[in-house]
C-alpha cells in the first residue's frame, strides 16, 4: 500500500471497537494524525507492516483484543509494546506512545499505572 | 632490598602505593591500588579497607602481604566538611487561586476571562455573562464536548479547564475555538463563580499575559494595589505553557522573606553579616574577619539552625577527638531552589532564592596512631604515621612530568579543597577550605529539584545524551552516537547519563540544556572560586602570579570538566595548571601514597 500522508498507521483484523477508539483518542490527544485499515496476518505482521508503511515510522497492529505497537526498522515480532485484553487506560497510553514515538517524547507508563514499564 | 607501602586514607578512597628500596638507596615504584575507605576517615574501621588495598597491590606483583617491611600512613588533615541549604524566600497561597503548569498538550491558544462554572451546573448559566467551564474527569471528552456544544449558542463560554489529559480531544469536537487547559489534578479545589483569567501559549512560546502583572490587571480589572499583590503570581508563571489565575476577594498570595538571620564571624575582627545580602557579601566579610576562630549564626533563624545542625553532625563524627566542634571556614553560594507552592492546584513550584553553605570543622588530631597500632597487630608489619597529608601530596605531585619547584597543589576532594605550596628551599604552606564535590552535588540536586541525591551525584560525574530514536542518541556536545541493536524503549525520549558500561535514565523531565547549564554553573561556582581563594592563601605574598605551576589532585581532579575549567580560569594569572599525572602513569590519584614513599628516602 502506498501512503503519503504523515500518519500513524493502524492495521486491524476483527478489532474490538471500544479498545480501538481509545487507541485513536490517545493518538489524537497528542495532535498526531492516524488512519485505520483492515489487514491480513497475525498481530506481529500487522504491526510490522503498519510501522513500515507509516511515513512517520510508527504503527499499531490489532487482532481482536490483542494490540502491538511497532516502530519502523525494528525486526518483526520485536514489538515495542504489547497488550493482551487490556484496560481502557492502557490502550489510551499505547496510542499516546505511538504518537510520542514520532514526537520523540518519553513514553507514558503502559503496564502498571505508576510503576516501571517492563518488556 | 626492602618493600615499603605508602597508605593514604581519604574521605572517600584509601590509596596505597608499593615500592622497593635497595641497600644502595636505589628506589623503584612497583604497584598501587585503591579501595573505598571503610568507616569515617581517621577511625579504626579504616583498617579493613587498608588491608584490602594492600592485598590488592601486593597481588599485582605476586608477593604475599607478609613480604612488606614497612607501612607508612599519612597524617590525615583533621578537617571534616558538611553542607546545608536554606531557602530565604517563600511563596504562600492562602486561598487557592492559581494554576500555572506545563501540561504536555493543552489546546487552543490565546487568553480569555470569565466566571468559573462547573460543567454539571452549566444549565444555570446566564446569557451575556462570560464563562470559563470546569470539567472533572468523570465526564468523557465526548460528553464535555457535547454539553458545551449544546450551550454554546446561548452562553458566552470563553475557556475550559479539564482534569483529564484530553484538551486536544475536546477541542477537535467543539464548535468554538477557545483556550483549553488540561491535567489539573486538584480540580475540586477550583472555586465556582469567581472571575478567572486563562491563557494558553502559542506553540514554542511561553504565556505572555498572565506572566505579566499588568496583563493580569488587564484581564481581571485590578487596581494598582491589587496589581502589586499579584506580582508573585506573575513571577511564578514565567515560562509556563498555560495558566489560570483566579480572582479571590481575600485571596492571599504573597512572597515571604523568611527571617534569614545573620552569620557571626569570630576572627581577628568580629563581623556580622546578613545572609540575604548574598554569597558575595558573605565571602567578602569572611575575608575581612581575618583568622577565623569560629563561625555561628543568629539564634532561631534559618542560618543559625543550619550552622548548628552542621556543628552537631560534626560533633557526632569527631566525638572522641574533640569535644567542641568549631567551624573555621565556610563557602557560601547563591542558588535557586524550586519549592512547591503551598495551596496550589496542580502542584506548581516556584523558584525561590536560597543560599548553599559548605562548612568545615577542624578537630584535634585524628587518632591515626591508633590505626597504625592496630595495623601492626593484625599484619605483624611495622606501621608508622609519617608526614602531613598536604606535604606528602605536594611531594608526590612533583613526579608529574613537566613540573618544577615552587609547586602548588590543589587537592579537591568531597568535603574540602586543600592547597599547599612547596618552595624550592623545602618550606611548605598549607590551607584547608570548605566546599568541594559534595556542595556541587547539593547545588545540582536543589536547582534541578531532583528527588534523589544519587541522581545528582551521577549528573555531576557523567556526561549525558538524549535518546532520540531507538537507534541513536544525541550527546551533550551535539554529536550523534548510533547503535546496532535497538535501545530499550524505556530510555526513549529521555536524558540518559553515560556511566561506564551502562546508561542511567534521568527520571525527571528536564531538558538536557538545562541540566548542562546547572551542572557547569555549580562546578564553576564552587571549584573556581575555591581554587582561587585557596591559592591566594598559600601563594608567596598572597600573590597568585608568584605560583608558576599548579597540579590538581584528588577525586574531583578526575572529573571530566573541572580541571579544564580551572586551567582556563588560572591561565588569567599566567599559571600552568592541569590535572596531575603522578609518576607519569597514575593520573591525579595516588599523590599522597607516592609522597609517603618518597619522604622515606629523604628521611633515611
Describe it for me?
The complex is a heterodimer of chains A (119) and B (604). Chain A has a single domain, classed as B12-dependent dehydatase associated subunit (Rossmann fold, 3-Layer(aba) Sandwich), CATH 3.40.50.10150. Chain A is globular, with a radius of gyration of 12 Å. Chain A has helices at residues 17-29, 43-53, 88-103; strands at residues 8-13, 34-38, 58-63, 66-71, 81-84. Chain A is α/β, with parallel strands linked by helices. A 5-stranded mixed sheet of chain A has the order 2-1-3-4-5. With 604 residues, chain B is α+β, with helices and mostly antiparallel strands. In chain B, helix 14 (562-571) links the parallel strand 29 and strand 30. At the A-B interface, helix 1 of A face helix 3 of B.
Strand order in the sheet with the most strands of chain B: 7-13-12-8-9-10-11
Task: For the largest sheet of chain A, list the strands in their spatial order.
Answer: 2-1-3-4-5
Task: Please state the overall shape of chain B, judged from the principal axes of the Cα atoms.
Answer: elongated
**Main structural class of chain A:** alpha/beta
Quote the CATH topology of chain A: Rossmann fold
CATH superfamily of chain A: B12-dependent dehydatase associated subunit
Write down the Rg of chain B: 30 Å
- The termini of chain A sit apart by 30 Å
Number of domains of chain B: 4
Can you give me a brief rundown of this structure?
The complex is a heterodimer of chains A (119) and B (604). Chain A is an alpha/beta fold and 119 residues long.
Amino acid at each position: 500500500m502506498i501512503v503519503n500522508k504523515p500518519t500513524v498507521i493502524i492495521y486491524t483484523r476483527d478489532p474490538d471497537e471500544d479498545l480501538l477508539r481509545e487507541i485513536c483518542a490517545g493518538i489524537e490527544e497528542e495532535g498526531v494524525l492516524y488512519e485505520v485499515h483492515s489487514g491480513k496476518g497475525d498481530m506481529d505482521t500487522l504491526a510490522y507492516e503498519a510501522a513500515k508503511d507509516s511515513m512517520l515510522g510508527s504503527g499499531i497492529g490489532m487482532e481482536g483484543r490483542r494490540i502491538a505497537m511497532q516502530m519502523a526498522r525494528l525486526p518483526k515480532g520485536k514489538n515495542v509494546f504489547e497488550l493482551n485484553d487490556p484496560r481502557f487506560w492502557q490502550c489510551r497510553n499505547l496510542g499516546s506512545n505511538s504518537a510520542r514515538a514520532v514526537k520523540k517524547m518519553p513514553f507514558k507508563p503502559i503496564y502498571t499505572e505508576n510503576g516501571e514499564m517492563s518488556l | 632490598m626492602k618493600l615499603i607501602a605508602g597508605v593514604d586514607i581519604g574521605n572517600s578512597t584509601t590509596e596505597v602505593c608499593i615500592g622497593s628500596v635497595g641497600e644502595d638507596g636505589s628506589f623503584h615504584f612497583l604497584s598501587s591500588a585503591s579501595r573505598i575507605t571503610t568507616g569515617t576517615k581517621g577511625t579504626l574501621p579504616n583498617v579493613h579497607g587498608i588491608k584490602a588495598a594492600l592485598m590488592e597491590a601486593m597481588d599485582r606483583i605476586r608477593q604475599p602481604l607478609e613480604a612488606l617491611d614497612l607501612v607508612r600512613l599519612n597524617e590525615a588533615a583533621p578537617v571534616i566538611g558538611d553542607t546545608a541549604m536554606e531557602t530565604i524566600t517563600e511563596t504562600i497561597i492562602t486561598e487557592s487561586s492559581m494554576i500555572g503548569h506545563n501540561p504536555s498538550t493543552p489546546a487552543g491558544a490565546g487568553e480569555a476571562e470569565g466566571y468559573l462554572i462547573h460543567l454539571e451546573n452549566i444549565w444555570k448559566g446566564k446569557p451575556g455573562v462570560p464563562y470559563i467551564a470546569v470539567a472533572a474527569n468523570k465526564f468523557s471528552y465526548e460528553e464535555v464536548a457535547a454539553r458545551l456544544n449544546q450551550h454554546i449558542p446561548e452562553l458566552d463560554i470563553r475557556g475550559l479547564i479539564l482534569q483529564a489529559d484530553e484538551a486536544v480531544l475536546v477541542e477537535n469536537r467543539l464548535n468554538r475555538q477557545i483556550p483549553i487547559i488540561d491535567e489539573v489534578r486538584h480540580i475540586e479545589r477550583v472555586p465556582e463563580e469567581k472571575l478567572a483569567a486563562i491563557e494558553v501559549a502559542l506553540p514554542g512560546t511561553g504565556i505572555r499575559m498572565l506572566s505579566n502583572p499588568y496583563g493580569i490587571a488587564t484581564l481581571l480589572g485590578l487596581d494598582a494595589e491589587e496589581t502589586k499583590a499579584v506580582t508573585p503570581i506573575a513571577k511564578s508563571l514565567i515560562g509556563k505553557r498555560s495558566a489560570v489565575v483566579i480572582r479571590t476577594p481575600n485571596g492571599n498570595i504573597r512572597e515571604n522573606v523568611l527571617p534569614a538571620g545573620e552569620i557571626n564571624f569570630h576572627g581577628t575582627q568580629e563581623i556580622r553579616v546578613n545572609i540575604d545580602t548574598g554569597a558575595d557579601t558573605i565571602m567578602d566579610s569572611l575575608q575581612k574577619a581575618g583568622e577565623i576562630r569560629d563561625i555561628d549564626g543568629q539564634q532561631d533563624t534559618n542560618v543559625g539552625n543550619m550552622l548548628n545542625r552542621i556543628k552537631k553532625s560534626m560533633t557526632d563524627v569527631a566525638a572522641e577527638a574533640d569535644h567542641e566542634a568549631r567551624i573555621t571556614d565556610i563557602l557560601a553560594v547563591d542558588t535557586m531552589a524550586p519549592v512547591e507552592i503551598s495551596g496550589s492546584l496542580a502542584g506548581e513550584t516556584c523558584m525561590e532564592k536560597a543560599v548553599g553553605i559548605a562548612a568545615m570543622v577542624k578537630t584535634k588530631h585524628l587518632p591515626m596512631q591508633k590505626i597504625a597500632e592496630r595495623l601492626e597487630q593484625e599484619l605483624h608489619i611495622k606501621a608508622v604515621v609519617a608526614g602531613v597529608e598536604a606535604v606528602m601530596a605536594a611531594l608526590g605531585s612533583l613526579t608529574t612530568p613537566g613540573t618544577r619547584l615552587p609547586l602548588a597543589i590543589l587537592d579537591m576532594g568531597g568535603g574540602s579543597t586543600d592547597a599547599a605550596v612547596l618552595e624550592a628551599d623545602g618550606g611548605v604552606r598549607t590551607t584547608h577550605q570548605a566546599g568541594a564535590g559534595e556542595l556541587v552535588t547539593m547545588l545540582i540536586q536543589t536547582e534541578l529539584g531532583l528527588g534523589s541525591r544519587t541522581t545528582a551525584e551521577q549528573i555531576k560525574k557523567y556526561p549525558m545524551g538524549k535518546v532520540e530514536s531507538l537507534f541513536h542518541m544525541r550527546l551533550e556536545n551535539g554529536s550523534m552516537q548510533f547503535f546496532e541493536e535497538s535501545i530499550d524503549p524505556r530510555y526513549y525520549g529521555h536524558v540518559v547519563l553515560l556511566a561506564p558500561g551502562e546508561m542511567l535514565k534521568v527520571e525527571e523531565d528536564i531538558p538536557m540544556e538545562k541540566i548542562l547549564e546547572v551542572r557547569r554553573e555549580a562546578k564553576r561556582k564552587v571549584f573556581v572560586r575555591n581554587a582561587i581563594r585557596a591559592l591566594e592563601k598559600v601563594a608567596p605574598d598572597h600573590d597568585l602570579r608568584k605560583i608558576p605551576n599548579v597540579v590538581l589532585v584528588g577525586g574531583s581532579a578526575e572529573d571530566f570538566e573541572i580541571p579544564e575549567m580551572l586551567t582556563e580560569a588560572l591561565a588569567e594569572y599566567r599559571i600552568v595548571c592541569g590535572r596531575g599525572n603522578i609518576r607519569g602513569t597514575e593520573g591525579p590519584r595516588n599523590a599522597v601514597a607516592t609522597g609517603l614513599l618518597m619522604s622515606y628516602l629523604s628521611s633515611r
